[in-house]
Design goal:
There is one protein chain. This protein is α+β, with helices and mostly antiparallel strands. The chain folds into 3 domains: 53 residues; 111 residues, Tyrosine recombinase, N-terminal domain (DNA polymerase, domain 1); 191 residues, hpI Integrase, Chain A (Orthogonal Bundle), CATH 1.10.443. It contains 14 helices and 9 strands. The protein has a 4-stranded antiparallel β-sheet with strand order 1-2-3-4, covered by helices on one side. It has a 3-stranded antiparallel β-sheet with strand order 5-6-9, with no helix packed on it. The chain is globular, with a radius of gyration of 26 Å.
Length: 375
């Protein structure tokens, strides 16, 4: 195992791009696992040493939060972008000058009140949901600071964020589903609607779909990635959970939509002399064959609904409509969870529990039927 010195710390090579970073502080030894290139491992160790050698009593919330957000390699680009936005708008204007070690539960609670009263840039109140997002970011940041012994405790864990009123999921009724699909017949977004309603795919999963993932003969497709859009550009990312990588059976409406889409694509490519699409080619593309950005797809969708005069609903609402239709048909939560790519059926139940409640009378009738011989 190769060992490399680096000031007050060192790096031990574990193989396969894995390293153990080690350093000393106040006579104690610390270590952390890391994966990356040798230069990335050195940069990470330097970052850790800088945090450890910084005078903790002088470190402000702004100093720590900006440095952590800029350098933490465990944050995805989209998460980092959202965290930085929350930090700059909701946390730093209120808590930024506060010394990190002197932040108290009382100050965090007062900060909640400030945001709820006039937390927006125009002086208007923030919603409890947004305040909760900001609180969770502060909690995560302080948890990292506590691990580095920059603070003695995570004060955000001692204060509860404002309670958020649960909002009912917006979804299409069965007649509305028919109206959307009928109204988009012949439109370029028909296969998008058919996949979102018929399979429950997320917007990023639709944009990341390649022809090699689709088996029209067998009537199924494979979800193995999602296309993410940030200010830095487009990025393919793996599913968050193992269950997010899944194979989904296609309903006939989705098969028909994809077949029509395939035929139209073949005709256009033959005119241009390009031949058949390759398995790695995107299913939904821009004119130049590049993948369709998620935000652009949302704008197309909004315009299509207005032009075709069909029920207004966002792309994510089609995914909810898929779940609602399955629940209404009596499909079990485990199957629904697998089709949606949820981490656990418990998450599915927490999201759609109010819809499952509608099946309670049917459940009682089923028990009566099963026990009928006892009457």
């Amino acid at each position: 195992m190769a060992r490399r010195g680096h000031g007050d710390g060192g790096i031990d090579e574990r193989g396969d791009g894995r390293w153990r970073l080690r350093w000393r502080k106040d006579g104690k030894r610390y270590s952390r696992s890391f994966r990356g290139t040798p230069s990335e491992a050195k940069r990470e160790l330097r970052r850790l040493l800088e945090l450890e050698t910084a005078t903790p009593s002088r470190l402000t919330v702004t100093d720590y939060l900006r440095k952590w957000l800029a350098e933490d390699r465990n944050l995805s680009p989209k998460t980092r972008e959202r965290y930085q936005q929350l930090a700059e708008r909701q946390i730093l204007p209120h808590l930024g000058t506060q010394p990190l070690q002197k932040l108290t539960p009382a100050r965090v609670a007062a900060w909640h009140g400030e945001l709820l009263r006039a937390g927006r840039s125009d002086g208007r109140p923030l919603t409890a949901r947004t305040v909760g997002h900001a609180h969770r970011l502060l909690h995560v940041a302080l948890a990292h600071a506590a691990l580095r012994e920059l603070v003695s405790r995570n004060v955000a864990s001692l204060v509860h964020p404002p309670k958020v009123q649960a909002a009912e999921v917006r979804s299409l009724s069965a007649p509305e589903i028919g109206q959307v699909l009928q109204g988009l017949t012949g439109h370029r977004l028909f296969p998008v609607a058919a996949l979102a309603i018929g399979c429950g795919l997320r917007r990023g999963e639709l944009c990341a779909l390649r022809w090699g993932d689709v088996d029209l003969m067998a009537g199924r497709l494979r979800v193995c990635a999602s296309l993410e859009q940030t200010r830095a550009g487009l990025r393919m990312k793996e599913p968050k959970t193992r269950q997010g990588r899944r194979v989904v059976s296609l309903p006939e409406v989705a098969v028909r939509g994809l077949r029509d889409h395939w035929r139209g694509l073949l005709e256009r490519r033959l005119v241009l002399g390009l031949g058949r699409p390759e398995p790695d080619d995107w299913v939904f593309t821009l004119a130049d064959g590049s993948p369709m950005p998620p935000n652009y797809l949302s704008r197309l969708w909004k315009r299509a609904l207005a032009v075709r005069k069909v029920p207004r609903i966002g792309l994510h609402g089609l995914r909810h409509s898929h779940a609602s239709a399955l629940i209404a048909a009596g499909v079990d939560p485990l199957t629904i969870s697998r089709r949606l790519g949820h981490g656990t059926p418990a998450f599915t139940l927490s999201t759609y529990g109010h819809l499952f409640a509608d099946t309670d009378a049917a459940a009682a009738a089923a028990i009566d039927a099963a026990l009928g011989h006892l009457s």
